[in-house]
Design brief:
By secondary structure, the protein is mainly alpha-helical. It has one domain (about 1-170). It has 7 helices and 4 strands. It has helices at about 1-30, 75-85, 90-95, 115-120, 135, 145-160, 160-170, and strands at about 35-40, 50-55, 100-105, 130. The strands form 2 sheets. The chain has a two-stranded antiparallel sheet with strand order 1-2. Strands 3-4 form a two-stranded parallel ribbon. The N and C termini lie far apart (about 40 Å). The mean pLDDT is about 90.
Length: about 180
């Protein structure tokens, strides 16, 4: 059922939000010259996939988890994208392709070994990674890997259609701050 909802909502999102995404893409060209950010992340069953987002940091920023990046790397436009969560919109393509779900554990990087080990021990990788989830709306980010993995496992064990919509609605309404940046 969740995959059906993912396909329907990601398709509708891409169809109806393409003008917004086109505008953000053009504004991103002026901001950084490279409006899309692509990064290999850990997917379902620990398989790699390329996550796509709108760029929020300078092009030369090191490829590390957000909580390890310097806040001086975030552009003014990028700060706006992060605050409004509009930087996540291109991930609708990842959802439509089946690499992600709208709701699930946020995909980590392969160099986040502690987080990967914690999630692996709790069976979190059996699920598709998500655009949002319980950890995101609860202000739990990748700087606390054990707590994040526990929260992800708790969410996946109790995920229903009702909680699926709850996490999406909470995200759209601005609940949660996203990953902390130093």
């Amino acid at each position: 059922m969740m995959r059906f909802l993912d396909v329907v909502f990601s398709f509708l999102g891409l169809v109806f939000l393409w003008p917004v995404m086109a505008l953000l893409f053009v504004l991103g060209l002026f901001d950084t010259g490279a409006p899309l950010f692509k990064q290999v992340r850990v997917g379902r069953n620990k398989k790699p996939f390329t996550l796509v987002k709108f760029r929020t940091m300078k092009v030369d920023t090191a490829s590390v988890a957000s909580h390890l990046a310097s806040s001086s790397s975030i552009t003014k436009f990028g700060a706006f994208l992060r605050r409004t969560k509009l930087d996540e919109l291109p991930q609708l393509w990842n959802v439509l392709k089946g690499e992600m779900s709208l709701v699930g554990p946020r995909p980590g990087l392969f160099n986040q070994e502690e987080l990967t080990a914690e999630r692996d021990a709790l069976g979190v990788f059996a699920a598709r990674p998500g655009v949002t989830g319980l950890a995101q709306v609860s202000n739990i980010d990748m700087s606390t890997p054990a707590l994040l993995a526990q929260t992800d496992a708790q969410m996946m064990a109790a995920l229903t259609v009702k909680t699926y919509f709850k996490y999406i609605l909470m995200t759209v309404l601005g609940k949660g701050a996203g990953d902390r940046v130093i």
